[in-house]
Amino acid sequence: MNVPLPKYVERGPIHDVAWIPLKFFTDPRGWLVELFRNDLVPPAFHPVMAYVSMTKPGVARGPHEHVDQADYFCFTGPSTFRVCLWDARKTSPTFGQKEVREVGEGEPFALIVPSGVVHGYKNVGDKDGWVFNAANRLYAGWLKQEPVDEIRHEKDPNSPYQID
């Protein structure tokens, strides 16, 4: 991701991870938040599909990683999520590094997770929380006819990737 990013995009301690602060625009009708803009995300990470998930309090999703796919998550609330990232890319300058951040209702962020970075999150708030994801690859390929690009770690009790 060695392309210029706007000043307010935060590069994570893990190489190629980017955190994009999300801003809510409110008025008497409610609010609006821009989840994705072409000018903030390098073309290699532009989405080809999107979904929204709801995670109950105390529940974790992941950790897992992708061989080819990158994820573009948006944590906007209405709860708080603890996001854990591990750099599993042997050729990365931050190989083996871990990053943990709490985001969501009080700290809304978008997050670019490149392939090879193990990732997972847990709803650490007290209400159901929504997460938006816009991946740069189709889940299970064109018309869902290919193997799913996931290496799952959450069911391995000996995995070094444990969500705190």
TrEMBL record:
GO biological process, one term: polysaccharide biosynthetic process
Record-marked site positions (Participates in a stacking interaction with the thymidine ring of dTDP-4-oxo-6-deoxyglucose): Y139
Domain of life (superkingdom): Bacteria
Coiled-coil ranges (or none): none
Enzyme class: isomerase
InterPro entries linked to this entry: RmlC-like, RmlC-like_jellyroll, RmlC_Cupin_sf
UniProt-listed Enzyme Commission number(s): 5.1.3.13
Reactions this protein catalyses: dTDP-4-dehydro-6-deoxy-alpha-D-glucose = dTDP-4-dehydro-beta-L-rhamnose
Gene Ontology molecular functions: dTDP-4-dehydrorhamnose 3,5-epimerase activity
Any one of the GO CC terms: cytosol
A Pfam family this chain is assigned to: dTDP_sugar_isom
Described purpose of this protein according to its UniProt entry: Catalyzes the epimerization of the C3' and C5'positions of dTDP-6-deoxy-D-xylo-4-hexulose, forming dTDP-6-deoxy-L-lyxo-4-hexulose.
Annotated protein name in UniProt: dTDP-4-dehydrorhamnose 3,5-epimerase
Species, as recorded: Gemmata obscuriglobus
